[in-house]
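Weekly structure sync - notes
Attendees: PM, LS, DV (DV joined late)
Agenda: review two folding runs queued last week.

Item 1: First target. Sequence and structure tokens pasted below for the record.
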Amino acid sequence: MRILETRSAPNPRRVRIFLAEKGIVVPFEELDLMKGALKTPEFTKLNKFQRVPVLVLDDGTAISETMAICRYFEELHPTPALMGTGAQQCAMVEMWNRHMELGLMFAVASAFRHGHPAMAQLEVPQIKEWAEANKPKALAIVAMLNEELGTHQFVAGDSFSVADITAMVAIDFMRPARIARPEGLKNLERWYAEVSARPSAKA
């Protein structure tokens, strides 16, 4: 098996961190999205949405979408559990990961894709107003997350999970998206220092 990625993109990083937390080694194959590598007929056969990452199994099965790939490996290697254990915890992890993915990550990615000059050739049409509209949305979710982290150690509770991975990657992606992280959010700063210090964060 192998994973197709563009290393600088945030979603492949989420998979790399997930695998590093589990101690799973999978070969990665680099594709340059800026040079149109995701637009080729060969890649489009693997993922019609032309996005990375894509996990290609030994039998040729292609699994796209970050969480689908993570779920595949969670089922094969259930410990350490990064998607929860038991009905309640699994639901909480799913809930918070969705908040971080569809809320924070989406807003940050929209600001980047529609606001960064380098993305103009890929995001057509590139709508600058949409980029600016998403910046305060991202900041509002960061503030909400700061408040939530005052009640438990990690995003979805007292255990590190995929929700922390999504949140950390989204917050790191705020920098290229040109969204300044607010100062003085003590709970967020405590959590960010902890998760960024984990060896997997460098994957």
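Item 2: Second target, run right after the first with the same settings.
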Amino acid sequence: MPHTHTHVHDLDFAQLDIGRERRQGLPEVVYGPGKTPGQIRVIAGELLRHNSGPVLVTRVDAGTATEVLDQLPGGSYDSSAGLLVWRPAATHGFTLTVVSAGTSDLPVAAEAAAVAAAVGLAVTTVQDVGVAGLQRVLRVEERLRESDAVVVVAGMEGALASVVGGLVGCPVIAVPVSTGYGASFAGVTALLAMHASCAAGITVVNIDSGFGAAMAAHRLAWAGRRRA
């Protein structure tokens, strides 16, 4: 029998942090891999019952999504992002641009954009503007400067984050991606290059973590709204 104690909801197989929405402006987000459709259904259902904001499940394959939505209707599935969403937030004024260096980076960029949109950020995307053709990113320079924050998704050597960081004054959230040839080391080269960027103040999240980038942008937006 589930019971609640100090904002923790005990489901035996999961301990739900039902106080997170009050602390951080968003209910706990569910990481899908390793969970059965039945477990996801129960967790998402309880989060919907105990919170008022959007409920998200990340990294979900299409078969699992279909099973979960059959049992817990009212949600939607974004196959490009692997994201299940119930009760998406209304869009508010915080503008986020998600920039990807190459077409191979699009799955990670799609996760960042879909998660950010689901939690209420006004999202636009810019695709395939890697530094091998620098004129491509310069063509959208003004658009990037008008954003409240920019997420930069790049593999290989990850240089696009430094380029964008030098062009704009808003927060830049860099996502290293596990694309590239051998010396890219499955994203480690991009990760280290982004950490070592000479463009001061760039935030760097984990390899392939479009979700982490979207959550960083959410925190920026939420903090701004709380202080407005």
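Discussion on item 2: The chain has two domains: 3-86, 95-227.
Action: LS to circulate a short write-up before next sync.
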